[in-house]
Amino acid sequence: MQTEIYQWLVPIIGVFYIGRTIYQFRKNKRGLTSTLVWVIFWITVMLLAIIPNPVSFEIANLLGFKSNINAVIFVALGWLFLLVFYLSTTIDRLERKLTELVRKIAMDEQGKEKKDRHENQKK
Asked: Do residues 30 and 22 make contact, with C-beta atoms less than 8 angstroms apart?
């Protein structure tokens, strides 16, 4: 069996990104769930690169596809949709938190201004 360039290049890239993800987790820049998702993703990509036919045929048999390429594309699209949904949910949550923070800061500043005006009126 002839080894293609992607069969050694993709695992090198995968190992780099797994290491980077674990490093970010250790520095508290990434949560446990996110770390596990990305490590599983890169391991799957590396397996598909190293042994593409057995893995893709197994995915096709498991999901009931006649073609292994269709199965891989289907799973990749599903993965992308899940990722977009996760990112969309994260953005919505961050927007709500930001809105709450801005409101709190505005209320605090308004209360401080009222207090300052009240103190100035006493003088």
From this structure: no
- Nearest one of 41, 39, 35, 23 to 82, comparing CA atoms: 41
Q: Is the pTM of this model over 0.85?
A: no
**Are 59 and 75 within 8 A, CB to CB?**
yes
CA terminus-to-terminus distance, the chain: 91
Q: Could you tell me which of 13, 38, 15 has the C-alpha nearest to residue 25?
A: 38
Inform me whether the pLDDT recorded for 59 exceeds 70. Answer: yes
Beta carbons of 21 and 38 less than 8 angstroms apart: yes
The conformational region for residue 120 under phi > 0 = left, psi -120 to 50 = alpha, else beta, is alpha
Mean pLDDT within 75-91? 90
Q: Which of 15, 22, 58, 56 is nearest to 37 (CA)?
A: 22
- CA gap 115, 110 in Å, rounded: 9
